[in-house]
Structures are given as structure tokens and as C-alpha cells.
Design brief:
With 203 residues, the protein is an alpha/beta fold. It has 7 helices and 7 strands. It folds into 2 domains: 80 residues, D-Maltodextrin-Binding Protein, domain 2 (3-Layer(aba) Sandwich); 104 residues, D-Maltodextrin-Binding Protein, domain 2 (3-Layer(aba) Sandwich). Strands 1, 2, 3, 4, 5, 6 and 7 form a 7-stranded mixed β-sheet that branches. It starts with a helix and ends in a 15-residue tail after the last helix. GO terms for molecular function: DNA binding; DNA-binding transcription factor activity. Pfam families: LysR_substrate. Belongs to the LysR transcriptional regulatory family.
Length: 203
């Protein structure tokens, strides 16, 4: 997100961008009510009239406290992970993220030991750093955490992928919005190559 906002400021400084942090349901309502132009979510269950385009992906990794027994594994087996308490995102605050993590946890026959549910990634990392529990989040988020004593480890086997979707009204025709979407896609495009999107005149 910081890279995207910096790119927008560089290429179209005259366009004001305001960022709001709201729940998925509020975001969908805001898009339908013309309160927001675009949104980001980790769910594509958005109902009729809203398009959900997969734009970013990040492997789901484990945030492990330093000196934890699981650090003997280079890649942590899911069954081993579930033997320890977990701190997970709250389903109300992080609905899409929580749904994607829940699907991964359901692959095992064991019930997870959920020690805490939190509304922010920063609090999750603070609890992991304190040795309170293990966390599950995107690899890039864990690696960029400023909390000391947090080690990132992938899950064993093929790493599950967390997908971020760009939400927009299906009837959107603004050239400015489509240029914004091009920049979103450019953040993850190899060598900065931007995909071509059909542009329609502003109405």
C-alpha cells in the first residue's frame, strides 16, 4: 500500500486520495452507495454489482517467537502448528483474512487452540514477540514487522496463498479510477510492466 500511494502521488499529484479503514460489509455498502470509489479486501464474496479483481498475493506463513520449539522446522507441519496456542485475526475486523486462514486450518483433523483474536496485525506481532502464541499472516507482513523476537517460517508442503482483491463497482467508467487500477496491478507486475485495461471516458 505505501508503494501504491507513493506511485499515485508521483504520477497524478493533483488527484486527492483518502484512505479509510472499515469492515468488509461497510466497504461493500460504501461502494454501492457511492461513498467509495475502490476498496481492498481479502474476500471476493461481495455480492452483485461489485467486481472483485485479484491483485496481490502473499504466502501464508507462521510468526514464531524466538527460541520456540517449532523453530527446529525449516517448514512447519500444520499438525505440529496446531499443538500450540494461536493468535488469529478477529473475523469481524478482518473478515476475508480470517476466512482464508480458517480454510487452511480446516485441512487438519485437529481443532486449533485459539488463545486470542485481534483486530490488528501489529497486536498479533506484539503477542507473538512476547511468546504468548503463534501467529498466521502474510510472509511479507511478518518479515517487515518491527517487533523483536519474531521469526517467519513457511508451512510444510505447498504454501497457502493469501489473496487481496480490489473491489469496484461493475458499472465504473471513470478514467481516473482505471488509471488507479493500472497502478495497483503494476505494483506486482514483473519489471514494472503494466497490463492494458480498457479505458472509457468519464461520465
Amino acid at each position: 500500500m505505501p508503494s501504491l500511494l507513493a506511485l499515485c502521488r508521483e504520477e497524478e499529484p493533483e488527484v486527492e486520495i483518502r484512505v479509510f479503514e472499515v469492515s468488509l460489509s461497510q466497504q461493500i455498502k460504501g461502494l454501492n452507495d457511492d461513498l467509495y470509489y475502490v476498496g481492498f479486501a481479502q474476500s471476493d464474496q461481495v455480492g452483485e454489482g461489485i467486481a472483485a479483481d485479484a491483485v496481490w498475493s502473499d504466502p501464508l506463513w507462521v510468526a514464531v517467537p524466538a527460541r520456540h520449539p517449532l523453530l527446529k522446522h525449516k517448514r512447519i507441519p500444520l499438525d505440529e502448528l496446531l499443538r500450540y496456542p494461536l493468535v488469529l485475526c478477529d473475523p469481524q475486523a478482518c473478515e476475508g483474512h480470517a476466512q482464508q486462514v480458517e480454510r487452511v486450518l480446516r485441512r487438519a483433523d485437529m481443532e486449533p487452540l485459539i488463545a486470542e483474536r485481534v483486530a490488528s496485525f501489529d497486536l498479533m506481532m506484539a503477542l507473538v514477540s512476547a511468546g504468548f502464541a503463534l501467529g498466521l499472516a502474510g510472509a511479507s507482513h511478518i518479515k517487515s514487522s518491527r517487533e523483536p523476537g519474531v521469526v517467519a517460517r513457511p508451512l510444510a508442503g505447498r504454501s497457502p496463498i493469501l489473496t487481496t482483491y480490489l473491489l469496484r463497482r461493475e458499472a465504473e467508467t471513470s478514467v481516473t479510477i482505471f488509471r488507479f487500477i493500472e497502478r495497483v496491478r503494476a505494483i506486482e507486475s514483473p519489471e514494472g510492466v503494466r497490463p492494458t485495461l480498457p479505458l472509457e471516458p468519464d461520465t
